Every structure is written in C-alpha cells, then in structure tokens.
C-alpha cells in the first residue's frame, strides 16, 4: 500500500485541498484506513484517498 499522506490529520482539524481552492476550508470528520472524510465550506462532504491527495493543514481561524 502507498503511504498515507494525511495520517496525522485528526477529526476537527482544518484543511484545504491543494488543487480545489474554491472548496474553501474543510474540517476533517474522520480518518480511517487512508480514507479521509472532510466537510468543505463550499463543496460539502468529500471523501479523500490519502494515498493520492495530500491535504494542507490550516492553522488560522
């Protein structure tokens, strides 16, 4: 299996998708076996394959 590029992300953390800026900030809902569920401000719920996409952590409010 490929590396999980989002292994350190936990529910509640804020993230951005590296190529979908229009989605806005997302909040991690779950991170289970390389599948990350994120609720994005302008896109809604999206399931991310952590072996393919490395989300960008957001540290400001």
Structure description:
This protein has 61 residues and is mostly beta strands. The chain has one domain (14-58). Helices cover 0% and strands 41% of the residues. It is built from no helices and five strands. It has strands at 14-16, 26-32, 35-40, 44-49, 56-58. Strands 4-3-2-1-5 form a five-stranded antiparallel beta sheet, with no helix packed on it. β3 (35-40) and β4 (44-49) form a beta hairpin. It starts with 13 loop residues before the first strand and ends with a strand. The mean pLDDT is 92.
Concise summary:
With 61 residues, the chain is mainly beta. The protein contains no helices and five strands.
Compile the SSE list and pairings.
Elements: E1 14-16, E2 26-32, E3 35-40, E4 44-49, E5 56-58
Antiparallel strand pairs: 1-2, 1-5, 2-3, 3-4
